[in-house]
Amino acid sequence: MARLLIVDDEESLCELLEIAFRREGYEVETVTSGEAAKKKIEARIYDVIVSDIRMPDINGLDLLEHAQSTRSSALFVLITAVPTVSTAVEALNRGAYRYVIKTDRLVEELKLVIAQAVEETALREQNATLRRELLRVFAQDNIVGQGAWLRTLLETIRSVAPTNSTVLITGESGTGKELVARAIHEASLRRDKPFVSINCGAFPETLLESELFGYCKGAFTGADANKKGIIESASGGTLLLDEIGETSLTMQVKLLRALQERKVRPLGGTVDVPVDFRLIAITNRDLKAMVAAGEFREDFYYRVSVIPIHVPPLRDRKENIETLARHFLQKFARQMEKPVNDFDPAALASLKEYPWPGNVRELENAVERAVAFAAEDERLIRAEGLPESIRHGSLPLPPVPTLPAEGLDFEAQMAEMEKHYILEALRAAGGVRTRAAELLRMSYRSFRHYAQKHGV
Question: In 316-442, where do the E strands start and end?
């Protein structure tokens, strides 16, 4: 329930507005003087403050300044029966949310303005929650002086956020790349504008083009109406292209044009639409290697990697494992209403030793599972509550085949196993070769060597 404070020296108007907005479901307080309003603002938190400009003791502009000095987060709506252009301009310049003239339609106009203000306040709170979540997940170790990579990352975010430069965020799956992208947006001058994301690997090329650029009615079978594209929807804000390494060479040309010219043309259209967006790209692939292999355009690579940010895998920042595990433990214990609140030493040791191929996402899933299976009166997560592979500190190995009585061709058998695991890794990685290399704990160059060796 949004909380309103209404300030006007006309008691009858205060009563009218209080009745009208209580019917709309708001919690409403009214005062008839600026001094009384100052005390209210100092004592309580409001979502919206509606104040008359002309009052006997303190005018509305001075009350607005007082609210700002107390760091009130309320949006300020000023109303007046004596409107002037200079007063309206001054009100907006000093930070008022809206300037409304007292007419016979005052209540209806205020209903619309306050509904918009409450919606904007809710959006601000969501953004603040996201920023707090970022600090909990990424920066908790930094508070106690741990994690040099984290300090560098947060400094980088603070430095690049105010710019409009394109950012390329790289790292393995599950490391939190999208959270970094959102943090950059939330710290930028575009934070009150749209943050629009699309997974480039989730669409075939023809569908991806229509999603990105939109289309006009009749552009293709089934195009029954005009549709705005993702890029145009992000105008004014930030566009996040996830898995940009999965885009085709043809699509890269079209995206490069949109980046350079800041214009898009919907499918079937004849007119370019101007767009203003900040691009952040994400990938778990080695784009430099793809450029060398002719799989990614060099000009597009340099256009998207103006500011590169790499998020290291969890196994390379083991100092964060305990902090993250405790964060997830609190989260899931609260959600499942269980008293479990810590790990026993053996469980913590297992968590720290495990290589976490799925990174932070895998750790979160492991802790969720452990909490789910914990007894209702259990207060500690014990080692036996973790999956066997984590307890042993390593990934489970497949069973070793026995040696046939007649013997075997060792080199041929090993070659067959190499090919088998190359194919299995590719299948598990959805054809993404860099990810397949990660699953086999080898460099991309080594993976490519084995793939070529076995004709894969």
Answer: 342-343, 380-381
Q: Which two tokens stand for residue 268?
A: 């079937």
- Stated pTM of the model: 0.57
- pLDDT tens sequence for the chain (456 residues): 789 999 999 999 999 999 999 998 999 999 999 899 999 998 888 889 999 988 888 888 999 988 888 877 789 999 988 888 888 888 888 888 888 989 888 999 999 999 988 888 777 776 666 655 555 544 433 322 346 777 788 788 888 988 999 999 999 988 889 888 988 998 888 988 999 999 998 888 888 999 999 999 888 887 788 888 999 999 999 999 999 999 999 999 999 999 999 999 998 888 899 999 999 999 999 999 999 999 999 999 999 999 999 988 988 888 888 888 888 898 889 888 889 989 988 899 899 889 888 888 889 889 998 998 888 888 899 888 888 778 765 455 556 567 777 777 777 788 888 888 888 888 888 788 887 887 887 767 678 878 888 888
Asked if the structure places residue 137 within a domain, the reply is no
Same domain membership, residue 308 and residue 197: yes
* Domain assignment present for 434: yes
Alpha carbons 282 and 167: distance in angstroms, whole number: 9
Please give the residue range of the domain that contains residue 267: 148-312
173 falls within a domain: yes
Same domain, 350 and 283: no
Place of tokens 């913590």: 348
Is 418 part of any domain? yes
Q: Same domain for 297 and 386?
A: no
Report how far apart the first and last C-alpha atoms of the chain are (Å, whole number): 61
**Do residues 345 and 426 both lie within one domain?**
no
Is there a contact between 230 and 209 (Cβ–Cβ < 8 Å)?
no
Number of structural domains, the chain?
4
Q: What is the Cα 14 distance to its own chain's centre?
A: 42
